[in-house]
Write a structure and sequence with these properties.
Blueprint: H1 13-24, E1 77-79, H2 87-91, E2 97-99, E3 106-107, E4 112-118, H3 119-124, H4 127-135, E5 142-148, H5 155-168, E6 171-175, H6 178-190, H7 207-215, H8 223-233, H9 236-241, H10 244-247, H11 255-266, H12 294-333
Parallel strand pairs: 1-2, 4-5, 5-6
Antiparallel strand pairs: 1-3, 3-4
Amino acid sequence: MDDHDEYDFDTDPELLKALVSSEEAPVVPRASNPGVQKMNQPRPQTLSKEGCPSSSSAKIVQPTPQTLPNRSSGTAIQVSPRQKGNPVLVCIKNLAWEYSDIPADYVLGLTTCALFLSLKYHRLHPEYIYTRIQNLKGKYSLRVVLTMVDITNHEDSLRELSKTSLVNGVTLVLCWSAQEAARYLELYKSLEHTGPAAIRGRPPTTYSEHVVEFVTAPRGINKVDAITLVSGFGTLRNAVNADPDHVVGIPGWGQRKIRKWSGAVEEPFRPRKSTKLPITSTAGPRADTAPTGRGDGLGSRGAQGKEAAGASRQEVDDQLSDGVAAALARLRRDP
């Protein structure tokens, strides 16, 4: 059999018609896969020249610094490990404390520190405190040397420490017990942020404040007593010139306060017996007490000179006291 015999088949009109129709049918494109999306590239944007100022025309504005709150050193007292075993630590009960690696013995604030010194230890090692003070230079504004007075003869040691404190600009605080030392440390820490106005006295500015300050000068007379006294007599002059019997009627004024007040307003400004040298020159020996002999004359002349100096000093004091008394009397008489 020939090779073409296997492909030999009868001509079928329907088959030929189907082949012709398939050749004339249009080609339909295949649908794209719906799962695959087409990537769109972003379009470039055109920037305007107004948004980018040139470096030559634009002025650089520095940012405004922000005010940060003050740093706090915490509420606990920082204690150096050198102070382990110190009985002062047992007495600190009102505030917390903690050990810290610090150059001072106690840190009581951002600018305050303290060194603890026992005079008994200072007598054995006098160079210790000087080395500690030198190591603290420039680190704290307020440096306190808390000194425990635990020896009997402490005058020389305290005098030396006072000179050292003045030279090195440190504050010397003395204490006689561990409880007192702990109280000082607690006060320094608790008053860390307190301003100086809390302990600074305000000088009087008005007339009424000056009057109250004048009347309360004698000990035992308070501000309320001063106000009631001046209000009762109307003026300060009337209160000064008032008889003690009239002051009894003022509320709150007893015999003790009346004696204090009367003694203050009636006392002369210059004491009668003064220990100062006389203002005028002393006179020599008088003629009626001339010496009778050579040896006795020298001794009697010296004695007479001392008597004359004492008499002249007494006369000057009496004259000044009489003058002050006369001025006070004239002031009381004037309406």
